[in-house]
Amino acid sequence: MYMKDSVVLGESILAVKQSELQEVLRLINSGPQSTVNLVRDQTKLYLECICDGLASNVEELEDVSRLTLSTPLRNVEDATCTLSTNRFIDVQEMTEGDRSYLMLSPTQLGRAALVSSLPPDAALFVFSDLQQATKAIALDSELHMLYLVTPTNCSVWQGCDWNHLHSIFSKLSAGEKRVAKLVGANDRFLVSRLRNPSISTSDRNTQLHLRFFSALALFDVVNEKSIDEVARRFRISRGTLQTLQQQSATYAAMVVAFCSRLGWTYLCDLLKGFASRLAFGVRRELTELVSIAGIDASRARIFHEQGITSMVELSNCQLKKICEVLSLAVPFSSSNTSDGLNEWLFGEPRIRLEEAAALLRERASDAVKDHLRSLGLSVDQIKMPSSTDSATGAPSPEGDAPCSDPVVDLKDSGYSDDEVTSTKASSIANTDNNSTAVNKSLVIDEQINGNCRTEELHCSVIDDESIDLFSESMEELAISDRVQTAPALDSEGLSGAGEVDDLENSLLKVSLIYGEENQPEDSFDEPPSFKSPIVKRSPAILRSQKASCMKGKVPRSPLAERNFNSTPDQRHPAIKRARQPVLANSPSTASPLLKNLRMERLLPPTAPNADLDINDVCRTESAWNYFAQRSSLWNKVGVALVKERSSASAAKVTGICLCPTDGWPHFIPLTEEYFPGNDEEEAVCPSSTPSQSITLDERVSCVASIMRSCELFLIDALRDCHVLRRSFELENLRVKSVSYMAFLGHLRQGDRVQSLSEIAAKFQWNFDWSSLLRMNPRIACGAQAYLASRLVDMLTPIVVSCSSSESLHLELRSLQAVNSMCLGGFCFDRALCSSLTQRLKKNIEQLENDCFTLIGHQFNLDSSKQVSEVLFSRLKLACPGGSSTKKHLSTSKAILEQMEKQHPIVSNILRYRRLKHALTQCLIPMQYFVDVDGMVRSHCDMNTSTGRILCVEPSVQTVPKDEVLDGIGLRHLFKAQQGCVLISADYCQLELRVLAHLSEDPALLEVFKRGQDVFADMSHLLGISRDTTKKLCYGVIYGMGAKTLGETVKKSVNEANELIKNFFQSFPRVRTFINNTKDKAVKAGFVTTVLGRRRVTCSTRGRQEDVARDDRQSINYVIQGTASEIFKRAHSGVGRRPKGSDTISDDHTR
């Protein structure tokens, strides 16, 4: 436990298990150095306190935080700023005498997060997910709706086979692929995972695709496919699938509660049935029966097959019929015949069959009555069945005679559409004097025994009598609605528009009210925007002055400095285009939350400190002509793109923003689409409708001309240049990249560059970039262009301080060369690829049959576990590696190569893996990246710690050079363009030569001066083979330990230690260089390459393993980083004119 102040009085008593006693005593006696501060993000706690009325200002939240005895991850002011920015709470300035303070109150979104038990981050994700779905939702099947209630759970797909998932995706129906396109899943990403399966599951695209496959699996489950069948289809365990099923049921209930509290009635109706369906794995028509305690999916299915499809039919059914159905649903057991008892009801003790039937019918009747009461209907005159059935009104001795009196009337209840007999309806009378509010301000007047009374309805996500699967979570999700008295309605509009659930409710006699009673959900105060019955707001409120957060003696805080109101002088001076005003009380079938948001936009927004002036140059023809003339004087320009994903493989540019280094952004739309913002965004940066007289071809031509003549500053140059090439046919561009400059300036976490807003926060601005970058595409694009035009020059001194000016100059030249290489592309032989693919598939199939013939049965050659069982359990082959602590013995390539002589199946497995890898990791993925001109254009990543250049999407670097089939290798797929040749160039032992230069070891330098086979000379000197010498040298460079080196050269640990010792004895200055590098890393805190590029070392020297790893990385960085600089210098000079030849571009000389 963490406490802010030391406690010197009192005593503490700790109760522990006997097995934990020694560990507890060790912790107590270990001293203060083992004390751990408990740090938690308390944002959710703050939101709950505000919603529950426990706190209404910052001081009260700080008091609550102190009571938790833990250190908050962020202070209260930062957390409340975040909640306010994300519209979870409203912040209003209040004054009491001379004291000013901020009043915090929950918004509808904040309450929805509380009711659904969703943390703020998760609530924002659900909110955006559902909002996106409202724009386009596929209703031809339930898959899209099921996707919306499927949580992201990557643990379900731990170690999944991406090749198998790609196979499933390729076989989806047209409707299922339409859903995949709507949610963003595509086969191109699956192919990329085939090539690089090590991508982290935290990657957003990975999570999206795994969530889609989870929805596919659940789609089969709710359509009553067996768990075993679904588990086999998706190759996941049965238990894992059941866990996903239960988690999704709980998540579905949370999403439904979230929608209900927001007032999204129609979306709530679409999703509300999935919680119980996921819990039981049944179709929609069975959900009514499974809500009765004692009926599970299998019993409900039998009832449905026998014609009993609803609670009403079950409550009217004969006991004899119910007994017959239960006899069909429950398996016969000989052990139960002696006493006549059996488990007729799911999850309940053994009882007699007749008792179970009567109990089910009674529960069904009670459920129907409860539903009628929830509709405000009187059920006092409804005759419910007794313990015996009667055909004529007289009791039946056996209790199974048909009923003459119907139980209920369901004309309005929605429980049955087919078999409803004549029934008695409860009387409903109207009253004129008294009106009360029920279920979110809906009032239904009932006449019961001549008196008016009000029933309070309780809306719960799952029926109380359902199974207790969600017993804990459902308590939090239950929505208790209130009974309130009604004030007079305002003539201008409806009172509390945000509280209205459904327009259809107006067909009833209802009153829309706001009550005074303090019900459970109203233990906190609603903000005035939800309480006031007046829809229209006065101009004085809309134009209230900017709030000064703290006055008098109260100190100012970061929260207080935020702008919660906008003033007229903050608006842009330009003329705002005319707009049709949005009427809050206009008839609309949209979500009630959307109306509330429209009203909230009229309230003072959290605006940036200054307006960003974006010039819409296409607004008039004269403005366009002036822009065209002015842009001819530019030589440097920041560029940002508005991109729209038009297909799975390309992004379409719909707008571009150009910003000179000393001016404002100029926005040019490149489609007929217009980019207006909401009221808040228009107040910050007004937009103008583009003139139709300026054609798209004219715009594209002008933009292309500017980019050819200027040096371009882009946020991510290597990515954006591919888009520019496709849209404007531009290749040889002069570019600089903000993200790469930030990486070189150490503005990163690991190998991930900080976000643009994080980078911008390092400098002083008059803009709130975090707000601007989240606005509509036009404003966000303008903000990016403005930042790009400034940040390159602002980051330059930071980069130089982290390396040197010479290093920066080299990196920028290398960026230019790599970009030119990627845009030029590699010529690809499609015909050879297609032919080789077909031949490989046939060979792989033949190898599989050969293996099955040798072993006598089929098994999965892609499963290392099954291969291990075949080799070591069935064939009893000896494993060179000995026993293993893993679940099965290793079947790695190194192990199988040592076992080739033991059995012919081993050679077949090795060849199968080699061909399968060539097919799935190279051939099939590469075909997706071939452009229409027959070129493969890779993306390159230069954000690596050692300075290496990685080729991705596709990775042409990793194409193996070995022969695959009949003398053909995969590198034969790449050919020279017509009239060109391919030149191969490489450095011999580059990193080893760098080591010789840096260590200045005379023996190692002498080996290189001879100009012969370096490893052969060294092997003669060390007395070992050439191959072992090569592995030993690179093992020293990469910091390989004795154990790893021994496994590499197939020797024991002692022998590997002896090899390392002999190496350092033969080249003693290498040991001195390594030790000096370690010492410098500790003393200076960093190591550098030859040109001065730095790697900052770990500031704390903790565990021995961490110290050893940091030392290895420091040594590796100096050697590999210097080698990378040599390579970049050579690569950037490839485009120069070779002696005696014409000038050629570097994409022809790779």
From TrEMBL:
Domain named DNA-directed DNA polymerase family A palm: residues: 967-1148
Stretches assigned to coiled coil: none
InterPro entries assigned: DNA-dir_DNA_pol_A_palm_dom, DNA/RNA_pol_sf, DNA_polymerase_A, HTH_61, POLQ-like_helical
Molecular function via GO: DNA binding; DNA-directed DNA polymerase activity
One BP annotation, GO: double-strand break repair via alternative nonhomologous end joining
A Pfam family this chain is assigned to: POLQ_helical
Compositional bias ranges of the Polar residues kind: 384-393, 422-432
Residue numbers spanned by region Disordered: 383-432, 552-572, 1131-1150
The organism's place on the tree of life at top rank: Eukaryota
Endpoints of the signal sequence: none
Alphabetized Gene3D superfamilies for the sequence: 1.10.3380.20, 3.30.70.370, 5' to 3' exonuclease, C-terminal subdomain, Taq DNA Polymerase, Chain T, domain 4
PANTHER family, per database record: DNA POLYMERASE I, DNA POLYMERASE THETA
Protein name: POLAc domain-containing protein
Organism: Haemonchus contortus (Barber pole worm)
